# Entry
Amino acid sequence: MTEQELRQRRREKWRLDGNPVRTLEDARAFIESVGFCLMYPLPAAGAKGLRLIVPTFVGAYVGDAEKLPTWQHAFRDPRAQEATELMVRLLRDRSTYEAPLFGETTLLVAATVFSYFYALVGDRTTKHDRSDRSLSPLAHDVLDAVQREKGPVSKPTLREVLGGEPSSAALDRALGELWSRLRITRVDYNPREGAFWDLLYRWSPEAVNEGMHLSTAEALSALISKYLDCAVAAEAKEVEDFFSSLVPRSKVKESVNALLASREVSFVNVGHRALLQVTPARTAARPRRRA
# Structure
């Protein structure tokens, strides 16, 4: 494989070749094909100075990788607003989940692989223990408030329920704490009330239950394989850079070595680089004709 062939295969898979995602069916098919993608591109330096090899939803919506808006400029870009409306429809029907794993943009995860992400970053219990000091007092109060509601709740409603009128910034921080541990999830949005939140285990109990019973090694191996399928091929460091926001690099290296040992992953030469790829399926040998 040449570098040009690798770039072209990524462009096709990531829908950057003038074949944009515009319908709900297209969006579902795209997310399912890649497994996960960023909503918006990261700055050139990337998250924590890393360069992440991963598609973006706004890029797939536009059908090109040039001059895409970042989240800071999305509010004034009509393309970003239209892509967000389509993404919210994916959240509503539970075909996609959103996770705040890279700071400046969210990660969109296909329903079929979400339980693996939950196994890596989610809590192993759905019980709310107020003695958990890793959460702020306001985050505990917010979680209690969401639990008391019978369904998704908006930020304005949460402020009313909490009574003490926490500032918007403080409430955002508390929601972010809970969201980063996948205790809650955004499930809807409208311009008047903003985002709607629900308990993740109430919104998608099957995915949460499956994730809680997966081992870290099993989940990470599955996600690395999906990442390589999404990227077509990638350097070992690129794999580590992507997953270092979820688990220590040492665990990523262990999983890659295990996949290489089992021949589920193999090396492919791309130009002067040796990249990792999902081992292609062998085609059956054609029987020889008798003379």
About this structure: The mean pLDDT is 91. The first strand starts at residue 36 and ends at 38. The first helix runs from residue 3 to 13. The beta strands are 36-38, 96-99, 107-110, 153-154, 184-190, 194-199, 265-270, 273-278.
